[in-house]
Every structure is written in C-alpha cells, then in structure tokens.
Amino acid sequence: MPRSLTALPPAQVENTGEIDIAEAEDFVRQHHAENPEIGPVEARLAEVHAEIAATGTYRHTTAELTFGARVAWRNSSRCIGRLYWRSLKVRDQRETSTPADVAAECVEHLRVATNNGKIRPVITIFAPAEPGMPAPSILNEQIVRYAAYRGTDGGVLGDARNLALTELALKRGWQPPAARGPFDVLPLMVSCKGHDPALVEIPADAVLEVPLSHPDLPWLATLGVKWHAVPAISNMRLRIGGIDYPSAPFNGWYMGTEIGARNLADHDRYDLLPYIAKRMGLDMSSEATLWRDRALIELNRAVLHSFGEAGVTITDHHTESKRFLTHLEKEEAAGRSCPADWSWIVPPVSGGLTPVYHRYYDSGELLPNFFPAGSSSQGCPMSQ
C-alpha cells in the first residue's frame, strides 16, 4: 500500500528535485505488488538505490511512469471521475525540454485527447525536476484558456479568471484578435531556465469547441456562448516515487456542471445567470423566487444538450456520482483506501439528489498523486 500523507498536506510536499529514498522504495514495491507478472522487486530496488547514490535521482522506466500516472489519478481525492483510471493514455515526453517543443507537444496532446469528440483521458509527462536541472513550467492553468479584457467601465469581456494570464500574454507580445471577443483562446506560455520563454498560439483546428443551444429556448443559441471540449489541466505537479514532474498536463472529459454551474455561472467567471433569467422572463425581485436556481438548471441543460448534439463526450452529475460509488466499491474490494474530499465530490447542482452526498469518505492523501504548483489547493485532475 502507498504511504498515507494524512499528516502532510499537499502544499508541504516540496518540489526540490531531491529524492526521498523511502518514497521511491514504496513506489517500486507498489508497482511490483500490483503487477506481479513483472517479477521480484529486489533487482529493481537495487538499481534504484545505485542510481540515486550515483546521481542523486533515478529514472522511471516507461512501465513505472505509466503505472505511476494512472495511480496518481486513482489517488486524486478531489476527482469524481476516477473509475476509468486504468484507461489513461500516458505520453512520455521526458526528452522534450525546450519551451517551444513543450508547447508543441501540448498542442499535440489536445489533438490526441480530442479524438473527433470521443474524448480520451490523456497525460503528457515532460522532464522531471532533478538536482541542478530545472524542469519546464507551463504558465497556463489549462492548455485551453479564454482571454479576459478589462473595459474602461471596469467590466470584463471574457473569462475574468484569466485577467492576470491575459495581461502577461499581452506583455509578452501576444496579439489578440482585432475584434476582441469573450472566447479568444490564449496562447501557451512555457518557461524553462536557460531558454527563452515560448509564447505559442494554439492552432484553431486543435481546439474543439461546442456552441451552446437549448432544446426549449431557441434564443440561447443566438448568444454565441461556447466551451472547449478538452479540460487539459496544465498547472499541477505529478509526483511519482519521490520524483516531481512539474509539467504534466492531463485531461479526462467534462462533467456538465463544471461548465454550466461553475465556468459560465460563477460571478467571477462569465456570470451568465442574471442575463439568462431575464431572457427567460423570471421574477428576479427576490432571491426567494429561486430565479438563480431555475436559470442554473436551464444553463446546465444547454451544456448537456449541446455536447450531446455535437457528439462530444460529457457526463451528467447523477450518472457520474453513481460511477464514483462503483469505483469506490472496486477499490475497497481490492483492499485499497480511496480518499475523497466530500466538498469536491458532491456536485455543485442538486448535490443532495446524488448518492455521493449521503456518506463519509476516507481523508488524507496517497502517493503517487497530483499536487498544486504554486498554489495551496489541489484541483480535480480530470476536469475544471
């Protein structure tokens, strides 16, 4: 079993490049224990010890890297979509280290994951942090992020979450479209000590986007609202067997509420609920009319309807909640702990109607796992 980090919050697992030998041993033993067909563990442990003694670190085999990345998803306590952890496609790009090449492989990641709308769970792992050798750093929170522009009246056009990232891109020379819009895709920004930072435009044909419509509200299709299909998170650190991979973008597929109840609805994002409620003719004179709730449901219906019409993989919160409990049962049957953060597992819409609401979960963190890069909170590695 991997060691529990119950007493060690994720933000305290430092990205130093120094190897914790006990953590490395735990991982190698876990890999062999869960894959007995690869043979006895002693020879591999001897190799790891010798390599650490000689170089201060060690290199994962392709099999170890693949297993570690999949288990990191399995251990992610804030992700509801872990049932499919074994299906994660692992792209080993440890030899790709220059910022421009890293950005190019991020674009390729999008193409592989998009899969003509049949979204594949994919992770692309770049060079690890090693003593004296800095790893590449991807500045974008996700590979695809929409720009935000502050107007002279103080308002924001676009995704307000990305104001700082947009300002940085502009300072680095990004030229936004002549007619700025609410869904302008930001360029990728990658840095690595010893190299010039890269600012790379993402080709339009690499970003699959779904325009929103509604089965009963035809006017919604005229608003020009859309969202991208692949939630490829790129600002978290993958830790496997004591080795940190600061740049390892990964994706699953969206759960509809992440778009309809957070990205498009949050006050500090697109804040669409007041506009939708007004267009629906709802009574907005008091919170007691539940106009926000009614608008929220219809926005979420629009997301699920639109992705379905476009043939793009998505899931609803009721279905995914049941799948998570199936995953939990499988993990318990395998004799493994399955930590889950209740506040993230329970959906932001109709939480009490889902089966994940009505129970407690194991706490703590297991290794391998994903940890924040320069942040105090861990996100869901398969969506956001």
Q: Descriptors for this entry?
A:
single chain; globular; three-stranded antiparallel sheet; 384 residues; 10 helices; alpha+beta; three-stranded mixed sheet
Describe the structure.
The chain is of the alpha+beta class and 384 residues long. 32% of the residues lie in helices and 12% in strands. The chain is built from ten helices and 15 strands. A hairpin with a 2-residue loop joins strand 10 (236-240) and strand 11 (243-245). Helix 6 (256-263) crosses helix 8 (291-310) and helix 7 (273-280) crosses helix 8 (291-310). The longest helix is centred in the last third of the chain and has 20 residues, at 291-310. It is globular, with a radius of gyration of 22 Å.
